[in-house]
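Cast an eye over this sequence plus tokens and explain the fold to me:
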Amino acid sequence: MSNEPLYYVAPETSKDYILRNGIFSPREVNRLIQAGELSDEVLGISFGGNDSSNFPEFVSMVGSLNIAKLVAQQLSFSRTGQYKNPDFVAIGYEIRPEIRDHQNFIGEKQVKQMNPDCYPSEVLFRGNIGLEFLLPRYFGVRP
């Protein structure tokens, strides 16, 4: 197991919700939005609108800060139409390395088999990531 944390990137507008509830899969986020329990402002899906995701059942994380910046650029583009919008801020969340030992964790090689166009160092977690896996630090990511 690697001792390095993983990174999850989402729009700044989702910060309060994530810090209270953890990180939800795109499918669960969409369900909460449709039920009126969550604003679509928190949507962190990179590739398109409210119903688009490469892995709707999974939370996607990356293993590199450089790739986290690339994810922030994709989020900026999906929200603003610009890869480097100066008004857009994403938040990067550090995920405990121990998540790799969880039965719902899917490593890089398998993710690459699932989708050859995935981000470099992308890994997945089936379902939602509870607060116990979030490290108590986060950081702004400007595209």
Remarks:
- The radius of gyration is 14 Å.
- Residues 65-80 form the longest helix (16 residues).
- The chain is about 25% helix and 20% strand.
